[in-house]
Design brief:
By secondary structure, this protein is an alpha/beta fold. It folds into 2 domains: 8-181 and 394-408, Rossmann fold; 192-390, Rossmann fold (3-Layer(aba) Sandwich), CATH 3.40.50. Helices cover 39% and strands 15% of the residues. The strands form 3 sheets. A 6-stranded parallel beta sheet has the order 3-4-2-1-5-6, with helices on both faces. The protein has a 6-stranded parallel beta sheet with strand order 9-8-7-13-14-15, with helices on both faces. It has a 3-stranded antiparallel beta sheet with strand order 11-10-12. The two termini are 21 Å apart. The mean pLDDT is 93. The protein binds 3-phosphoglyceric acid.
């Protein structure tokens, strides 16, 4: 059956001004502002290259970080990275809408690519509203007036009902980009059949998205949830372990402590199914790795990884699984001394006989860093969107693509 949305196969983009929403939200070094992983940029570069080769005037919209977070930075380095990957110039304007943008878009020649400023710098962007409400805002009105077509390429941001994701499909012909197409076709397959034992690795820092997902997985019969990263720390805390002020401060800063009670209840309701670390690695004052049993906590130093005993236990469990979903690194893998837990458990997944799926920007960056990505059966750059799709939720961006296909089926 044909997919319920339009793609590049359905349009002629030559000479047209095409607005493309990608998701190149990347890990950024908070001190230098340098991009630490270009995985998402590389993927979306393929869609942008195709559009450019077809003679479109390509205007790229993307976000980076969340307001208030250290990675909420301008997109200048993203433009430079994209240009390096594409091997062709990428123009950049440090505004989302305004005179500079209008001029830059109007002066684009076929094949040229322009990246606009971090779209979340615009006050209308990161606000959840309906597509028609967003379509009335300045951001969508002004940019749509400059364009002929909208391409939604960021599956990983399709769960956000934000202006740049859902607004344009109301007013412009809208199609799915290549990354969106690829993600959607695989997502359909992986949600159909899950062989048991079914294991899920839950780590990373975006725990707030994970809580509902944990409940969902447990209700759908996941055999074991192996936890690490901030998810693991929070579960330890919820089970009554005093982590120490340094680790608590990290959870508090990310507003994760509000999930404590719920996490505690999940642990009680599912004895034996949710695995928490039995030892951890903390970052000592001189930056070195010091392993401690959980019974030796609290520590004045922050927990940065799972410990060796936990690694061995998780590796054993992974070896017996038939299906494994990997969501989030198990520690601060970006720092060599704390990459061990993530590396060894991910390696065991890659080498196992199980059908393995990895999701989320940081997970994929870690896999690429360790050279393991090719050994997974499927790697999705989406984190939150992946979780919501697997849970059977409708993603606002995907719904817009479907609605646009209906609206514009008479001709683009
Ligand atoms: C992601 O990294 O999951 C997407 O870029 C969405 O980012 P967000 O969770 O800040 O909306």
């Amino acid at each position: 059956m044909r997919q319920p949305y339009l793609t590049l196969e359905d349009v002629n983009v030559s000479g047209k001004t095409v607005l493309v929403r990608v998701d190149i939200n990347s890990p950024v070094d908070p001190e230098t502002g340098k991009i630490q992983s270009d995985t998402r940029i590389r993927l979306h570069a393929k869609t942008l290259k195709e559009l450019s080769d077809l003679g479109a005037k390509v205007v790229v919209l993307a976000h980076q970080g969340r307001r208030g977070d250290p990675d909420f930075v301008p997109l200048r380095s993203h433009a430079e990275t994209l240009a390096r990957i594409l091997g062709r110039p990428v123009k950049y304007v440090d505004e989302v809408v305004g005179e500079k943008v209008s001029e830059a878009v109007r002066s684009l020649k076929p094949g040229e690519i322009l990246l606009l400023e971090n779209v979340r710098f615009h006050p209308e962007e990161a606000v959840s509203k309906s597509p028609s409400e967003h379509a009335q805002g300045e951001l969508v009105r002004k940019l749509a007036a400059l364009a002929d077509l909208f391409v939604l390429d960021g599956f990983s941001v399709a769960h956000r009902s934000h202006a740049s994701v859902v607004g344009f499909s109301e007013v412009l012909p809208t199609i799915a980009g290549r990354v969106m197409e690829a993600e959607l076709s695989v997502m359909e397959k992986i949600t159909k059949e899950v062989k048991k034992p079914f294991i899920c690795l839950l780590g990373g820092s975006k725990v707030e998205k994970g809580s509902e997902f944990v409940e969902f997985l447990l209700s759908k019969g996941v055999d074991k949830l192996l936890t690490g990263g901030l998810a693991g720390n929070l579960l330890l805390y919820a089970s009554g372990v005093n982590l120490g002020e340094a680790s608590l401060a990290i959870l508090r800063k990310r507003k994760l402590l509000e999930h404590t009670q719920w996490m505690g209840e999940v642990l009680k309701r599912n004895p034996g199914r949710v695995e928490v670390p039995s030892d951890v690695a903390v970052k000592a004052e001189d930056g070195s790795r010091v392993e401690l049993k959980v019974s030796e906590l609290p520590s004045p130093h922050p927990i940065y990884d799972i410990g060796s005993e936990t690694i061995n236990r998780y590796v054993e469990i992974v070896r017996g699984a038939e299906t494994i979903f990997v969501m989030g690194p198990l520690g601060v893998y970006e720092e060599e001394a704390f990459a061990k837990g993530t590396l060894e458990v991910f390696k065991a997944v890659a080498e196992s006989k199980a059908f393995s799926v990895a999701s989320g920007g940081h997970t994929v960056s870690a896999l690429r860093m360790f050279g393991l990505a090719e050994k997974f059966d499927y790697v999705s750059i989406a984190g939150g969107a992946f979780l919501e799709y697997v849970m059977g939720k409708k993603l606002p961006g995907v719904e817009c693509l479907k609605a646009a296909a209906e609206r514009f089926k008479g001709g683009l």
